[in-house]
């Protein structure tokens, strides 16, 4: 989690939106007037964030100095009203669980199984997240739930097995 920057405030209408990034995550937007855009970009950079100024859509009305933090970003304080920061916030009550966006395990070539992975957690705030692997072949689907600890160990086991399975120099065939 990063510290939120203190932006210059002048009360004028904002004309510039500055997208705030940490690592590979769009975490928020800062809104400034043209006179404060360079100063706000520098303040954001000193706070350890990547700043990307972009134009402001004509129908957006924000004052200079306004800062919006996305609830799913790394700058979010806490988990919001009952949602973990990674939750997609779509139908949690109906499903009885929070879930992240599914990450497709694609290889860019035909595979027997379609595999997706996501985080899930029961609605209770004390529940621990789990890793949900879903595979689909034809019309049948299978799901495997792993604790975070199991998923961490599986990550290392898979890395070791993949290192062992590297193609040898014998014409690119598997050794």
Please provide a written account of the structure.
There is one protein chain. The chain has 175 residues and is α+β, with helices and mostly antiparallel strands. It folds into two domains: 16-69; 92-164. 18% of the residues lie in helices and 31% in strands. It contains three helices and nine strands; from the N terminus they run ββαββαβββββα. It has helices at 37-46, 92-95, 148-164; strands at residues 16-22, 25-32, 50-55, 66-69, 97-99, 103-104, 114-122, 130-137, 140-147. The strands form two sheets. Strands 5, 6, 7, 8 and 9 form a five-stranded antiparallel β-sheet that branches. A four-stranded antiparallel β-sheet has the order 3-1-2-4, covered by helices on one side. The longest helix has 17 residues, at 148-164. The relative contact order is 0.12. The mean pLDDT is 82.
Percent range for helical residues?
10-25%
H/E element order: EEHEEHEEEEEH
Q: What count of domains describes the coordinates?
A: 2
Helix run count: 3
Mass-distribution shape: elongated
Proportion in β-strands: 25-35%
Rounded mean pLDDT is 82
Rg, nearest Å = 22 Å
Distance between the termini: 44 Å
Number of strands: 9
**Helices and strands: which structural class?**
alpha+beta
Low-confidence stretches: none
Q: Characterize the largest beta sheet: strand count, sense, and whether it forms a barrel.
A: 5 strands, antiparallel
